[in-house]
Design brief:
Blueprint (H helix, E strand, L loop, with lengths): L9 E5 L13 H4 L11 E4 L18 E7 L3 E5 L3 H15 L8 H13 L25 E2 L4 E5 L6 E4 L3 H7 L1 E8 L3 E11 L19 E10 L3 E9 L1 H7 L4 E11 L5 E11 L1
Antiparallel strand pairs: 1-6, 2-4, 3-11, 4-10, 5-6, 7-8, 8-11, 9-10, 9-12, 12-13
Helix pairs in contact: 4-5
Amino acid sequence: MPTPRSRRLSALLTIGALSAGTAVAAAPAHADLLGGVLPDAGSLVTGTGATLGGVVNGVLPGTGGVVTGVTGTVGGVIGGVQDTVTGVVDQTLGGVIGGDGGVLPDSVINTLLGTLLANSSAAPGTPGLGGPNAGGPIVLSGGQVGPGGSVLLDASAPRPTVKVLTRLKQVGRTGRMKVEIKTNEPGIVALKSNVRPGAAVKAKKGQKAGKVSRKLIKIPQIVLGYRKAGKLTVTVRVSRAAQRTLGKVKDARMSVGTIAIDVYKNQDSENTKLKLKR
């Protein structure tokens, strides 16, 4: 079984020559990794953009905002999981942001993948449980032809990318920040972030320069499920204090901790540094 990893894993499957990008069935050696997954662990809230209510908590003590919506056609927010799972994910993401790295235990991975698979139909040869409220199938793809007609299957963890779509001036005006999270394969992406405000904007002539707090703004974690490769856009409503601060600064630095897991339980964590502009 592949270990929770920062190392890259790959496996060769000889099935004859296939063109690059052809859909590839789950390798038999990996099929066992899906055994024991809980089919009713939670829900996948998709394509709304509306306030998520009980799925994501409101503004928490010590945080600077709340996740209010998600848009996109490739998946949604993982909700309804046990508090123990949520706590472990949050603590592990804190370690990732802090530079210590971190991986999730197998029990938590089973719960999160169980939620994703229970809300996905099963295509021939691919994962998915096809429950009563299931969405589209999870289709694995990306086989590449190797020497002698071998097909190289990517058995590494997903590679998520994070992009902030909202400029600081707009955050100050609306109190909302949109963040795009893209992944290159189906699976789970959990993320949590901190924002450090920069220097205040230069005061206009004849006006007194305002002071802004450099205190760290903490954005709560969210867990996203992807039925296929693609992107989801998360909307964060920042606190009033954070809104005032971010609206007055020239720039800010954002530290985003992510944990990505595919349907074969390969996982990886990363701390990404972003610069937010006015």
